[in-house]
Amino acid sequence: MKPLSLIERAFFLKKVRLFSELDLDSLLAIAEKLHHDDYDAGEKIFTPGQVANRIYLIAQGTVQILDERNRPLCDLTSPEFFGDESLFNEQPRTYSAICKSDCLFLTLSRSHLLSIISECPAVAVALLQSYSQQLSCRHKGSVATL
Q: What span, in angstroms and rounded, lies between the C-alpha atoms of 104 and 57?
């Protein structure tokens, strides 16, 4: 898949719940820190027990979240995100993420995300709000800590 330009990444971020309230200058600063990752349909993104070191923002494609017994919990699409929970509790992943289609992710490392939060507290507030919402995927099985 074709990588997104800096301005395309910034406009994409505006659609992501975590960053939707930020101004363009902030979005451009964050967009510079994003990394592109391409995955093919059927490819595993991560499995339970793996070290968590990045958050995944879905730019294109569909991801299936599975519990530790490989039971489907939910499907996620653009502009949703996942993998953020373990960045804060420094615990290994407790679920799997698999691409249902070819996917393009914009990812942020733990250090970049923490840097963004320190520079822009609105992102921390958005993270807290996302956890407080009743998303079915975030309240089933072992993914209840998402």
A: 9
- Per-residue pLDDT band at 19 (split at 50, 70, 90): confident
Reply yes or no: is the peptide bond before residue 72 cis, omega within 30 of 0.
no
How much is the pLDDT for 133?
64
Bridge partners, residue 54, by sequence: 109
Order of strands, sheet of 62-66, starting from the edge strand that comes earlier in the sequence:
44-46, 96-99, 62-66, 72-77
Q: Parallel, antiparallel, or unpaired for β 72-77 and 103-109?
A: unpaired
Contact call for residues 108 and 9 (beta carbons, < 8 A):
no
Are 79 and 57 a contacting pair, CB within 8 Å?
Answer: yes
Assigned CATH for 6-145: 2.60.120.10
Residues belonging to the chain: 146
* Whether the Cβ atoms of residue 62 and residue 77 lie closer than 8 Å to each other: yes
Cβ atoms of residues 97 and 37 within 8 Å: no
Round the CA-based radius of gyration of the chain to a whole number and report it.
14
Average pLDDT, the chain: 86
Its sign, for the CA torsion 137, 72, 146, 29, is: negative
